[in-house]
Amino acid sequence: MNIRASIDELAARLDSAAVTRTACAQVFGEQDVPVDDAYVVQAALVARRLDRGERLAGAKLGFTSRAKALQMGVSDVIIGRLTSGMAVAEGDEVDLGRFIHPRAEPEVAFRMAVDIEPGGWRGNPAEAVDAVAPAVEIIDSRYRDFRFSLADVVADNTSAAAFVVGAWRPLSLPLHNRGVLLEIDDRLAEAGSTAAILGDPMRAVSTAIRLAGRYGIALAAGTVLMAGAATSAVALRPGQAVTATVSGLGRVRFSAGHATE
Ligand code: OOG
Ligand code: MG
Predict the structure, then answer these.
(1) In 3D, which of 195, 203, 194, 174 has the Cα closest to residue 108?
(2) Taking burial as the number of CB atoms within 10 A of a residue's CB, which of 33, 147, 158, 213 is the most buried?
(3) Measured at the alpha carbon of residue 16, what is the angle toward residues 13 and 20, in degrees to the nearest 5?
(4) What is the mean pLDDT of the chain?
């Protein structure tokens, strides 16, 4: 297959799956495609959102915890782009009709302190961010049955669909061993520790800078960096109230709205 010639076609397929909320077949499937090519498809896919008027709102890492790698059968750390249309305000109701088969996962979010052009950061990662918050990511693979290869999930912008960030706090606390809870309707759904995120979520900052540099992703001051889920993701149903708590950082909530036809 001439991958360069197909980039736009594969991006169009994934974009249409998201826009029409209809799962599609894996774009690469069994084909042994270099992950660098999958990142080119991701860039083309996100460019379609930007062409529709969205802005880049940050970046996210995937598979930074063993829980997630085991759940999805993919073990390399990956990076995706967040856009303004994915941002959900804390406490809001999210219409699940926007998604195909959404799942929620508890995360730690950082706020970028500086503009980092790809490959252009030589400083200390702790100086690249200035605030931290509890967060929830809503992931929604555009692939049938939420199944994919590494190249497939990279092309699909790492299943990014929506994100909710709680109140920012200064980066004054150690982050390496804080309890993480995901509650659905006040029942415990997942429990873990920030230690699951690369041993310390701060490592997500240096990893994101490295991957963003490699794949041409600019990280802008004031935008969000999601460090990756500390636990497995949980399927969302209409009517649910979702709360993520990170000990010492507080909690963040949203509710899953009923789809309106
Ligand atoms: C891919 C996204 C993984 C994380 O936090 O590990 C991710 C997926 O699980 O569909 O966002
Ligand atoms: Mg995630």
Answers:
(1) 194
(2) 158
(3) 145
(4) 95
* pLDDT at residue 101 is higher than 60: yes
| Cα 216 to Cα 218: distance, rounded to the nearest angstrom | 6
Give yes or no for residue 141 CB within 6 A of ligand 1.
yes
Is any atom of ligand 1 closer than 6 Å to the C-beta of 232?
Answer: no
Q: Which pLDDT value is given to residue 120? A: 81
Place of tokens 């460090």: 227
- List the beta bridge partners of residue 79: 61
The pTM for the full model equals 0.96
Please, how many CA atoms are within 13 Å of residue 203, restricted to the half-sphere of its CB?
A: 13
Q: Which of 34-43, 50-59, 112-121, 153-162 is predicted with the least confidence, judged by mean pLDDT?
A: 112-121
The amino acid present at 248, given as its one-letter code, is G
Which ligand 1 atom is nearest residue 63's CA? 6
Which domains are assigned to the chain?
3-90+106-172+197-231 (3.90.850.10)
What b/e sequence results for 8-40 when a residue is b if at least 16 CB atoms lie within 10 Å of its CB, and e otherwise? eebbebbbebbeeeebbebbbeeeebeeebbbb
